[in-house]
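Blinded run. Sample ID left blank on purpose so nobody reads anything into the name before looking at the predicted structure. Input follows.
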Amino acid sequence: MGRGKSAYISRTITALAIAGSLATAGPSFAAGTTAAVSGDSKPSDCGSAKKASYSLELSGSLAGCWSVFVAHFNCQEMNGFALYTEIGREEFAGKADGKNMTFDTQYTFNGIFPTGSCPEPAAEKEIVGGCVHYITGKGLVGVMRFYDVMYSNGAPHYFYEGTLSPT
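Blinded prediction complete.
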């Protein structure tokens, strides 16, 4: 096996192990407590009615639509790869712990793409990436992280984990 394929398999196994260790039965939003959330998400058109730049369907602790609105992005070629950064806002509408929930986020995404991908890399060409989301909502704050797992068959998964706290 070539070094590239071995590294890809190693990253995939590591990401799946992390995702498995993060899986929980679901958050519990008792007053004054912080709940851990985790799960998986896949590309979806669930945010199209909101005219989202793109959207994800979340499963796991949070179930629903994650709509992304890109505010700014930058792509720079360097040292044999393309570094892509993106900032924007998001809206989540769905359920947590069986209860309806909505919240907003501000996010920063960083991804590595093959050389020649700038100025706007194709999502399916992502090598590795992830993002941090700062959450605010009616009576809610938190932070979530998404870990991008890119498969060679073009079916990415975006594992997430984080915490939500009532204010």
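Unblinding after everyone has recorded impressions. Strands lie at 35-44, 54-60, 62-78, 81-96, 99-114, 128-137, 140-149, 157-166.
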